[in-house]
């Protein structure tokens, strides 16, 4: 019990020993906390693990829809933050993988979408996702990348299966829609057929109305033709009567001319009779013998008859003037009818052209019809309209030809009538003059007879009776000749009366047929108007007809397209075992290893070897009395060279032994030379650093070396990728020598590290070894200058407690002793 009490008492009395023990008690927690904290939850921090994504996929078309699976994967990854996805080209990704910027590369190949669409083919191809890992960089990072790639492959598979399901659903819906469209097309077809039927009905009504108008036109033409015949006959009678009248008037004029001359002679004789009344008595008996009562009576009767004929002639002359006026009206109406018939024919041709043009315009404006359909439809409708209108035109032309022929005859007759009316007018004027002359002559004759009768009673004898008798004889001759000529004149008058009566009858018949002719023309005009109305209605109903035809064709096309689409889609969906397998498992995962590490032991070898070399160097400086001077009185350089030789010798032995044993136990080495060189450079660097700390700061320096070891355990990235560790360790990672030792070891064992990074690692390790070796020499020079070159708590580990028990005065005495020995050695060298 007393032994235990004294041990603790001595510990508490020796402050240096107490601090050392306390520091050592913190080493486990420091190791545990630092190292464990660096690996606390690396898988939670995979969002910081950089993985390159290369999308080389080219979109394709599947079942009429664009398929771009690669782009969909990229878009989904941009929303996924489980991994630090980086999107770039293949070249950039490969350079980053070599230089340890990215731990793996996930490549979406060019035929990714094409493989997805191959399910409709007989030999579907799996969608292959390629991921490239660099195990030399970090084995666990490769494992994480593989897991990430597997998860990605699962996501892609689910997306593709979902896309397949949606595509099948869409295909089914589209097929249902196609059937719906087919039903809709059938309904539209029925509707279009109904509308077409209605339009055709209206078209038929328009044609019927046109036909009705044509019928009325034909009836009007028939009536017109029927009226033209009697009219022509009347005109012929009129012409014949006018000719007979002209002939009779000529004869009358020839007969009246001598009579007028004789009447003049009678008038002269009467004048002479009044002068020679005395001579009248003697000649009276001869006159009475010559002119007997019977002759006088006949002359009186004939004169009365002549007066009546002259009066009828005057009446007929007025009728002739009226006939001339009516003939002019008939000629005018004949010209009007002819013009209307020409216009009607022209209107029908114009309507035909208008209908055809409307049909062509309506069909051309219909954008839903194909060119072939438009052409065929135009040809069919145009032929139908042309045929119907051609039939109407033929009938109309036939009737119009007949009318034109009759109108030509009527026009000729009208011309003849006009000519005859002119002659009649001239004859009428002549007859009027002759009638006046005849009336005067008859009056004078009657007056002369009366005077003669009066004279016979009043003048029984006279001297002038002889002259009277002579004059009466002369008058008797004249009257005898007048009696002879007067019957001829009366016959002409009778002929004139007969011709006038015939002319009157012809005119009456002509007048009676003019209303019929006018009605026929009116009916003809009404028929033309009705025909135009029917054609107009036909033109107005053409859009509705075309709309019905368009709907009919659109419905038929929609029906055909829907059914064809359904058939085509059903043809593309052929279920086979390969397609079922592809549907269930459409993707595959391929790993291209940039560098390969077979197992976890091989992956940890760089880390363990580098750590072991550092621990070995630290233990060497813990055990070996680094400050102890082998020969007193030597220079600091000699002291430095002696310590460097022993330290670097030990580290070289550690490296060689370690590398050899690792090869012997089966560690696969990519480059043996680099493997040994890396072990040597790492050991030299570590030895230089630890020797500097131990030589300069003694035990506190050794403690600092231990802290550095712990920091490198967590910050060198020996186990997990540094990106999945804490921010503190990522920050100190570039400043830790073990980080570069790991790079060099990994490259030597499994390659995969870029030559630039390897050269950089060797340069840093060698540089640190040189720098700390030089710093070691400078530190030893300072220690020797201050006479502390042989003063260390580890010079004699067995006397550690005794050393710690010595007082400060004892230490000062040892320093003074060292100084005195140093002066003595100096004086001895000077004497020598």
What does this structure look like?
It is a multi-pass membrane protein. Residues 296-323 form a coiled coil. It comes from Enterococcus sulfureus ATCC 49903. This is ABC-2 type transporter transmembrane domain-containing protein. With 832 residues, the chain is mainly alpha-helical. Helices cover 80% and strands 5% of the residues. The protein has helices at 2-13, 15-38, 69-78, 90-98, 112-117, 139-275, 280-290, 293-365, 371-458, 465-572, 577-584, 600-623, 636-664, 672-697, 699-715, 727-732, 737-750, 755-785, 800-805, 808-831, and strands spanning 50-55, 60-62, 65-67, 84-87, 104-108, 127-134, 587-595. It has a five-stranded mixed β-sheet with strand order 4-1-5-6-7, with helices on both faces. The protein has a two-stranded antiparallel ribbon with strand order 2-3. Strand 2 and strand 3 form a beta hairpin. The longest helix has 137 residues, at 139-275. The protein is rod-shaped, with a radius of gyration of 75 Å. The relative contact order is 0.12. Residues 458-465 and 796-806 have low confidence and may be disordered.
Overall 3D shape: rod-shaped
The number of distinct helices, counting runs of at least 4 residues, comes to 20
The structure class reads mainly alpha
| DSSP summary, beta strand count | 7
Share of residues in helices: over 70%
Spans of at least 5 consecutive residues whose pLDDT stays below 50 are 458-465, 796-806
Domain ABC-2 type transporter transmembrane: 17-171, 450-776
InterPro entries: ABC2_TM, Phage_infect_YhgE_C, Phage_infect_YhgE_N, T7SS_ABC-Transporter, xxxLxxG_rpt
Transmembrane segments: 604-624, 644-667, 673-696, 703-724, 759-778
Keywords: Coiled coil, Membrane, Transmembrane, Transmembrane helix
């Amino acid at each position: 019990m007393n032994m235990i009490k004294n041990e603790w008492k001595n510990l508490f009395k020796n402050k240096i020993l107490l601090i050392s023990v306390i520091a050592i008690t913190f080493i486990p927690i420091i190791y545990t906390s630092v190292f464990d904290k660096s690996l606390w939850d690396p898988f939670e921090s995979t969002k910081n693990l950089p993985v390159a994504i290369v999308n080389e996929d080219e979109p394709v078309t599947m079942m009429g829809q664009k398929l771009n699976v690669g782009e969909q994967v990229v878009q989904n990854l941009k929303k996924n933050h489980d991994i630090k996805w980086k999107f770039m080209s293949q070249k950039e990704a490969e350079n980053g993988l070599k230089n340890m910027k990215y731990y793996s590369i996930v490549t979406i190949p060019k035929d990714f979408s094409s493989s997805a669409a191959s399910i409709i083919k007989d030999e579907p191809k799996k969608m292959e996702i390629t991921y490239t890992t660099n195990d030399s960089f970090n084995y666990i990072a490769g494992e994480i990348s593989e897991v990430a790639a597997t998860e990605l492959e699962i996501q892609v598979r689910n997306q593709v299966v979902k896309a397949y399901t949606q595509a099948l659903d869409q295909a089914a819906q589209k097929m249902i829609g196609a059937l719906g469209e087919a039903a809709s097309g059938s309904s539209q077809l029925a509707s279009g057929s109904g509308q077409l039927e209605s339009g055709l009905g209206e078209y038929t009504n328009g044609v019927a109305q046109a036909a009705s108008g044509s019928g009325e036109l034909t009836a009007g033409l028939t009536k017109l033709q029927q009226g033209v015949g009697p009219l022509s006959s009347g005109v012929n009678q009129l012409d014949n009567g006018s000719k007979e009248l002209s002939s009779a008037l000529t004869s009358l004029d020839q007969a009246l001319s001598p009579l007028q001359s004789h009447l003049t002679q009678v008038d002269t004789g009467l004048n002479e009779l009044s002068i020679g009344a005395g001579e009248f008595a003697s000649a009276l008996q001869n006159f009475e013998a010559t002119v007997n009562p019977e002759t006088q009576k006949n002359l009186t009767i004939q004169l009365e008859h002549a007066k009546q004929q002259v009066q009828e002639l005057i009446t007929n002359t007025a009728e002739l003037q009226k006939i001339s006026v009516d003939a002019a009206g008939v000629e005018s109406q004949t010209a009007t009818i002819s013009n209307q018939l020409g216009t009607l024919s022209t209107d029908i041709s114009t309507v035909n052209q208008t209908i055809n043009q409307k049909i062509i315009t309506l069909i051309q404006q219909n954008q839903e019809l194909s060119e072939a359909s438009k052409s065929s439809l135009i040809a069919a409708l145009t032929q139908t309209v042309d045929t119907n209108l051609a039939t109407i035109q033929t009938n109309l032309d036939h009737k119009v030809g007949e009318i034109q022929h009759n109108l030509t005859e009527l026009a000729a007759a009208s011309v003849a009538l006009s000519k005859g009316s002119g002659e009649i007018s001239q004859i009428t004027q002549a007859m009027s003059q002759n009638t006046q002359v005849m009336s005067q002559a008859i009056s004078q004759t009657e007056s002369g007879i009366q005077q003669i009768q009066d004279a016979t009673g009043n003048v029984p004898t006279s001297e002038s009776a002889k002259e009277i008798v002579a004059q009466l004889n002369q008058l008797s001759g004249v009257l005898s000749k007048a009696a002879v000529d007067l019957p001829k004149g009366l016959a002409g008058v009778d002929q004139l009366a007969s011709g006038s009566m015939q002319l009157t009858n012809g005119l009456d018949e002509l007048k009676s047929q003019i209303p019929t002719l006018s009605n026929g023309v009116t009916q003809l005009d009404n028929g033309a108007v009705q025909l135009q109305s029917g054609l107009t209605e036909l033109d107005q109903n053409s859009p509705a007809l075309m709309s019905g035809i368009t709907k009919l064709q659109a419905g038929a096309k929609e029906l055909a397209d829907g059914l064809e689409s359904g058939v085509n889609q059903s043809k593309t969906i052929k279920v086979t075992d390969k397609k079922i397998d592809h549907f269930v498992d459409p993707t595959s995962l391929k790993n291209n290893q940039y560098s390969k590490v077979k197992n976890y032991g091989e992956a940890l070898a760089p880390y363990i070897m580098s750590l072991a070399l550092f621990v070995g160097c630290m233990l060497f400086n813990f055990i070996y009395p680094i400050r102890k001077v082998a020969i007193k009185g030597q220079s600091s350089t000699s002291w430095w060279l002696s310590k460097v030789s022993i330290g670097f010798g030990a580290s070289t032995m550690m490296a060689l032994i370690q590398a050899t044993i690792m090869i012997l136990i089966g560690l696969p080495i990519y480059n043996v030379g680099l493997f040994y060189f890396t072990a040597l450079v790492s050991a030299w660097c570590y030895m230089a650093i630890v020797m500097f700390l131990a030589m300069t700061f003694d035990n506190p320096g050794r403690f600092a070396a231990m802290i550095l070891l712990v920091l490198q355990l967590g910050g060198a990235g020996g186990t997990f990728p540094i990106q999945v560790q804490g921010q503190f360790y990522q920050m100190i990672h570039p400043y830790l020598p073990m980080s570069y030792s790991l790079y060099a070891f990994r490259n030597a064992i499994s390659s995969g590290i870029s030559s630039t990074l390897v050269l950089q690692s060797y340069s840093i390790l060698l540089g640190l070894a040189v720098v700390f070796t030089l710093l070691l020499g400078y530190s030893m020079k300072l220690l020797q200058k201050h006479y502390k070159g042989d003063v260390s708590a580890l010079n004699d580990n067995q006397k550690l407690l005794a050393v710690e028990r010595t007082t400060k005065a004892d230490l000062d005495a040892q320093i003074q002793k060292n100084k005195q020995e140093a002066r003595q050695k100096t004086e001895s060298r000077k004497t020598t």
